Amino acid sequence: MSWTGKLLRVDLSTGSITSEALNMEWADKYLGQRGLASKYLAEEIDPKVDPLSPGNKLIMATGPLTGTCASTGGRYSVITKGPLTGAIACSNSGGYFGAELKFAGWDMIIIEGRSEKPVYLSILDDKAELHDASDLWGKSVWDTDAAIKARHQDPMMRISTIGVAGENGVLYACVINDLHRAAGRSGVGTVMGSKNLKAVAVRGTGGVRVKDPARFMEATAAAKKVLADNAVTGKGLPTYGTQVLMNVINEAGALPTRNARDVQFEGAHDISAEAMAEPRGKDHKPNLIANQACFGCTIACGRISQIDKEHFTVVNKPEYWHASGGLEYEAAWALGAATGVNDLDALTYANFICNEQAIDPISFGATLGAAMELYDQGILDEETTGGLQLTFGSAEALVKAVELVGKAEGFGKELGQGSARLCAKYGKPELSMTVKGQEFPAYDPRGIQGMGLTYATANRGACHLRSYTVASEILGIPEKTDPLSVDGKAALVKAFQDATAAFDSSGLCLFTSFAWTLEDVAPQLDAACEGAWTVDKLLEVGERIWNLERQFNLAAGLTGKDDKLPERLVKEAAKTGPAQGLTAGIDKMLPEYYELRGWTADGVPTNETLSRLAL
Question: What three-state secondary structure class fits 532?
């Protein structure tokens, strides 16, 4: 129950498409989505494989609660070996695609090999076909979505696709579904492009069965009430979206600014949630048009935004281009504070390009910030950049750069390789704000110490969505801890990591964890799924997933030496704010973390740990 019990295997090299029974023994140990797909990936590929070779596989996976009436049960993930990092990659997305895949009768799709020519995959319930996509190659996400729907005469198809960036090797290309929902990090879209797979289009006419419908309805109703009554999920996120954090994190002195030279941005209010709601321009219309929900969601944190018609970015753009998926906090930070740009319409435009061409705005913005510092130091010049004046704070440079990356043209090709490769090429690797090659997001570890350990140990490279200690250190959820202290943070990070792995594998959105604990999730899973699902079992599943991912990375060639932060964060103290004078205390936290994990001093799971977790 809840699982469909089927997966679709697509071999692009031969064109064969087959149905297989889901391994239910694995489902009991790894749940679904992130966990179960990572198990399949680890079993089926050599961790040392070139991420962009036919030997890598790409898995689109749902969780058991995807497609159900559980609030936020619309999630799916894209799992592969990431080209940006060389580590295991799992990028989670909302919207409607995941639910539609379940309605069509599939828990996951395993895509292997490489097609000789561009193709897309269509799925109508149990009928799956590959189609020539030569005419779609070179088209944007938006144009591809429209073309496939027109071809199948079905405006309700749900489509996940790549843009030009993924076709042309931008290493942080996304997979976008529903026009602006992204499986966003680590280059999962780049892998899709390397396989000559342009899109996956799904239409399902079925539903999702649960084990005990009456008990499931009771459990989901109780859980929805918890979300509605919570200040974050019931008011803050619906009203302001994740952008509610911009001013909060800036005041906490943890907003990485101008490539993390600073921890506070003087232009933070100009690009905040509050600014998005303020009237501006000749017609006095705000940037924010409305909020938007994913499938089955009662939070509705998504933003729909518009650009001022007088703004230089859209003067020559068609009318339909003026509104789309709006800024979320991480994108606003990366496109804004990381580059020193406080022009809200320019940020919105850049975000639209990231949606249109399927680019991770976090890695793009952080890479541009690094390039701006290289330019500021005279290492890059206009001859090198093809005429781009990469000055901190330049809205024009932001706009031109994102357009070039979207097309993978000119200096955009270099920016599209990420900041680690860019800075290494020009002899300044220390200016890359990355862990394992992935740009870290919108929280400076000097001002939020737990996030330093979170970034350093994240299995997919620097990431806030693997252990969001900001909830505790800044928001006091589930209890308040001191953001400037390293004490107790190893245990906090481990607890968040294990719980998050369970959330990610269930089919639920992680944002529910602002209000829910696993005590709210377990009754929903237990009523929906075969087997007995308790909090203890979910914590064990989460820990098993974390260690499985760690094993994959070790086999891929990563070591404990890769669990480190950029030099700037551990050597250059914060200049302003509450954290003034502090650096990131990773040296104290990391040994404590390894010990709590049951790993050796160099970060390898012990035999005892592996045996306990049946790995």
Answer: coil
